């Protein structure tokens, strides 16, 4: 047996013994995801146990260094872990902007002290983060942010407003872009800072979306004190951190449809519409569209894996995350259009037990934001045209 | 296994691209076509393919090949897709070589070394109707005397008009048999079909063709599995060729966007074209990953390999189709001229898409495998 085979056998045995039955199978809806944090909620006590067990091994962040609480796994080992989790249909123990976005940026740009302080808490799911990027006047043109941080010696005083802050009302801390030099060209006067959402002067207001839900907030800063030790990276060069983090965010959003853990589309459709005598979905036109999507989805999963492999080998262009973001979010929108078609009029129900509160319809509407948040599809195409294709004037 | 080429595989890719770029660029295809070459394919180039070790990439070292795997065969197929080179590689080096590897010692010894050396062309005859549908095969092989009597009509037989031997798939009472047949046998009629892309195939008609029992490759019971193995390798390699052709058409188009001026600007400055190019880039990257995934799955002998192959062939086919449409459209009027190469890519991609199952065929397999 190779080392990897041994690792697979051990991982399989450990997962079998430690992944509770309640944490296997598709995640019923977005509400059932475990986000952790000070005020963490769990759909069942088993989910709490599952997070604790995985967090202890660092397997909520399998490839982070063990010294910061991560799993310390090689890329090949992490792939084995993922495939073994898929084998038993294990749910992700933790959904976390800390794991997906901030952590990788801290590993790259953070001070030793910042890494020691924040990464282990992120791995164990004890801290929930939100992202202070967009502002009313800075959407696609993100570098136009106006939130100001005034220098007061050992700290800054921050004033301004963020918007589309995901789960700001539920987050413990924020990673935030602020303008520290109003005189400099727009990309060169931005800094990347961290602060507690419980700090005096921070307030949030949820925004109700077309799904009827409020995953996003407006976030207001009114004379908020931010310690200078919470600056990540170099003063006024926060754009570099922001861009690196955006690459992780884009990869995450792109992967959303594929790591969602929902039931396969064909299964949903046959459950809803039945099979014909030949064992085919009894809706030939829909069947063809689903098959086409499943081919695209399978190919896309391989592209995500390949991009990770290229990155590990030092051969990936940083802008490749834009390709994953663009493609994955468009794919996820298509998937949910087909889920609605598969559900027919059943999927139109907006309230009540039977439809789990209109989950299918609400999830469908939620996906429309995928190609807007984290940079619109059009912004991603601009980035691909400029940085990957070197087209003139792009 | 990382989904990227190893160092050795990268060297093979550079060797294949370098060799074809020098000895068989698109001008080679044009010459065969314009001079109405009687074979439509160069035997001399096939021998050179043997000398370079490309022809026998899948053939065991004991039979003069290099004993490599699907990924390496895909590397060669992708290179052939880039230069549009007519070559017996797919028909002989991939399909026939895989079938023959399941044959007797005598059959292997008779043909594999010659294929590896680029001396022999062996064609696999499977398709019958206009679409690839091996499950609907009607060609029959009945037990007769000490062997079999074959009847049926085959089409889209790659290089069949110049084949030194044919491998014919036919139904027997017990399963599918694969029969090694000399094309000069009584009752075998071969008609060359020049295709839209100036590559060649043949229609092969078998009328009461009598063969000995030792013409059977492997066993009747194992024939279907052996055929399926060869077809899956062929499909994955066709997907690699599609990626090569689609990407080359895309690269040519990018170059045009960077140099062609209209309205006093480079046309690549227009966002309408930038976004279409960026979309196409994304599609090509995803197709490339799907092809690599399929080739590696075949090499690892995974149970999921046939499905991975269908994903690759369907995806690479649709993406290459988009790439050549965009290539002609973005080139404008010159894209419609015979003088510019982009039209040749469009033709080649149409043929590769039809070869061994189009996107519809493979999406059907996907739906079946997923139970809907």
UniProtKB/TrEMBL annotation, chain A:
InterPro entries from the UniProt entry: Acyl-CoA_Oxase/DH_mid-dom, Acyl-CoA_Oxase/DH_mid-dom_sf, AcylCo_DH-like_C, AcylCo_DH/oxidase_C, AcylCoA_DH/ox_N, AcylCoA_DH/ox_N_sf, AcylCoA_DH/oxidase_NM_dom_sf, Mycobact_Acyl-CoA_DH
Pfam families per the UniProt record, alphabetical: Acyl-CoA_dh_1, Acyl-CoA_dh_M, Acyl-CoA_dh_N
UniProt keyword Flavoprotein, yes or no: yes
Coiled coil: none
Acyl-CoA oxidase/dehydrogenase middle domain boundaries: 130-224
Cofactor(s) the protein requires to work: FAD
Domain Acyl-CoA dehydrogenase/oxidase N-terminal, chain residue ranges per copy: 34-126
Superkingdom of the source species: Bacteria
Molecular-function GO term, any one: medium-chain fatty acyl-CoA dehydrogenase activity
EC number(s) stated in the UniProt entry for this protein: 1.3.8.7
Keywords for this protein: FAD, Flavoprotein, Oxidoreductase
A cellular component term, taken from the record's GO annotations: plasma membrane
Span of domain Acyl-CoA dehydrogenase/oxidase C-terminal: 236-389
Entry annotated with the keyword Electron transport: no
Family: Belongs to the acyl-CoA dehydrogenase family.
Annotated protein name in UniProt: Acyl-CoA dehydrogenase
Organism ancestry: Bacteria, Pseudomonadati, Pseudomonadota, Alphaproteobacteria, Caulobacterales
Automatic annotation (TrEMBL), chain B:
Top EC category: oxidoreductase
Keyword line: FAD, Flavoprotein, Oxidoreductase
GO molecular function terms listed in the Swiss-Prot or TrEMBL record: flavin adenine dinucleotide binding; medium-chain fatty acyl-CoA dehydrogenase activity
Domain Acyl-CoA oxidase/dehydrogenase middle: 137-208
Coiled coil: none
Residue ranges of domain Acyl-CoA dehydrogenase/oxidase C-terminal in the record: 225-369
Pfam family of the protein (one): Acyl-CoA_dh_N
The EC number(s) this enzyme carries: 1.3.8.7
Top-level taxon of origin: Bacteria
CC cofactor: FAD
Residue ranges of domain Acyl-CoA dehydrogenase/oxidase N-terminal in the record: 6-119
Entry keyword annotation includes Flavoprotein: yes
Annotated InterPro entries: Acyl-CoA_Oxase/DH_mid-dom, Acyl-CoA_Oxase/DH_mid-dom_sf, AcylCo_DH-like_C, AcylCo_DH/oxidase_C, AcylCoA_DH/ox_N, AcylCoA_DH/ox_N_sf, AcylCoA_DH/oxidase_NM_dom_sf
Keyword check for Flavoprotein: yes
Entry similarity comment: Belongs to the acyl-CoA dehydrogenase family.
Record-given protein name: Acyl-CoA dehydrogenase
């Amino acid at each position: 047996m190779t080392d990897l085979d041994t690792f697979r056998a051990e991982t399989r045995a450990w997962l079998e013994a430690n992944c509770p039955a309640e944490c296997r199978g598709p995640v019923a809806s977005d509400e059932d995801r475990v986000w952790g944090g000070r005020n963490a909620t769990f759909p069942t006590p088993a989910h709490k146990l599952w997070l604790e067990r995985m967090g202890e091994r660092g397997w909520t962040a399998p490839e982070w260094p063990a010294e910061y609480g991560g799993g310390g796994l090689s890329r090949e080992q992490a792939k084995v872990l993922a495939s073994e989790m898929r084998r038993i249909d294990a749910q992700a123990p933790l959904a976390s902007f800390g794991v997906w976005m901030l952590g990788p940026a801290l590993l790259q740009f953070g001070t030793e002290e910042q890494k020691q302080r924040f990464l282990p808490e992120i791995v164990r799911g004890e801290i929930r983060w939100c992202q202070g990027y967009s502002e009313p006047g800075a959407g696609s043109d993100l570098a136009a942010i106006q939130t100001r941080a005034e220098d007061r010696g050992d700290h800054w005083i921050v004033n301004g407003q963020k918007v589309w802050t995901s789960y700001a009302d539920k987050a413990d801390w924020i990673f935030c872009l602020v303008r520290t030099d109003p005189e400099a060209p727009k990309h060169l006067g931005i800094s990347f800072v961290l602060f507690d959402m419980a700090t005096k002067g921070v307030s949030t207001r949820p925004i109700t979306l077309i799904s009827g839900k409020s995953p996003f907030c407006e976030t207001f800063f009114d004379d908020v004190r931010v310690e200078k030790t919470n600056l990540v990276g170099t003063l006024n060069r926060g754009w570099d951190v922001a861009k690196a983090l955006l690459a992780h965010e884009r990869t995450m959003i792109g992967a959303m449809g594929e790591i969602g853990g929902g039931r396969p589309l064909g299964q949903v459709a046959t459950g809803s519409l039945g099979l014909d005598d030949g064992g085919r979905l009894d809706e030939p036109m829909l069947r063809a569209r689903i098959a086409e999507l499943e081919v695209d989805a399978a190919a896309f999963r391989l592209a995500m894996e390949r991009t990770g492999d290229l990155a590990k080998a030092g051969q990936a262009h940083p802008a490749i995350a834009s390709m994953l973001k663009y493609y994955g979010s468009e794919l996820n929108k298509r998937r949910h259009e087909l889920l609605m078609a598969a559900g027919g009029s059943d999927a139109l129900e907006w309230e009540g037990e039977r439809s789990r509160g209109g989950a299918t319809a609400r999830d469908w509407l939620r996906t429309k934001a995928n190609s807007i948040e984290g940079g619109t599809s059009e912004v991603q195409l601009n980035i691909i045209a400029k940085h990957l294709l070197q087209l003139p004037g792009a | 296994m990382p989904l990227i080429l190893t160092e050795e595989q990268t060297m093979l890719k550079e060797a294949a691209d370098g060799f074809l770029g020098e000895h068989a660029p698109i001008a080679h295809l044009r010459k065969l076509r314009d001079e109405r070459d009687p074979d439509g394919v160069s035997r001399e180039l096939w021998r050179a393919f043997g000398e370079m070790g490309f022809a026998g990439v899948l053939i065991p070292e004991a039979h003069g090949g290099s004993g490599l795997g699907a990924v390496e065969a895909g590397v060669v197929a992708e290179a052939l897709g880039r230069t549009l080179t007519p070559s017996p590689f797919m028909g002989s080096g991939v399909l026939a070589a895989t079938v023959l590897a399941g044959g007797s010692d005598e059959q292997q010894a008779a043909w594999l070394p010659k294929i590896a050396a680029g001396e022999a062309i062996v064609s696999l005859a499977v398709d019958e109707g206009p679409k690839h549908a091996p499950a609907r095969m009607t060609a029959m092989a009945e037990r007769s005397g000490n062997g079999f009597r074959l009847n049926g009509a085959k089409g889209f037989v790659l290089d069949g008009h110049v084949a030194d031997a044919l491998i014919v798939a036919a139904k027997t009472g017990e399963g599918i048999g694969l029969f090694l047949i000399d094309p000069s046998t009584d009752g075998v009629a071969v008609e060359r079909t020049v295709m839209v892309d100036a590559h060649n195939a043949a229609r092969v008609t078998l009328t009461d063709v009598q063969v000995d029992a030792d013409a059977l490759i492997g066993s009747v019971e194992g024939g279907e599995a052996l055929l399926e193995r060869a077809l899956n390798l062929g499909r994955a390699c066709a997907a690699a060729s599609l990626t090569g052709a689609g990407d080359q058409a895309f690269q040519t188009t990018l170059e045009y966007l960077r140099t062609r001026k209209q309205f006093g600007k480079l046309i690549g400055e227009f966002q309408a074209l930038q976004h279409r190019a960026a979309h196409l880039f994304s599609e090509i990257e995803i197709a490339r990953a799907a092809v690599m995934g399929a080739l590696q799955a075949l090499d690892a002998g995974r149970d999921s390999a046939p499905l991975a192959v269908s994903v690759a062939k369907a995806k690479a086919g649709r993406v290459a189709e988009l790439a050549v449409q965009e290539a002609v459209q973005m080139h404008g009027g010159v894209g419609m001229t015979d003088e510019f190469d982009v039209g040749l890519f469009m033709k080649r991609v149409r043929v590769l898409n039809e070869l061994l199952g189009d996107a519809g065929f493979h999406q059907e397999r996907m739906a079946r495998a997923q139970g809907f």
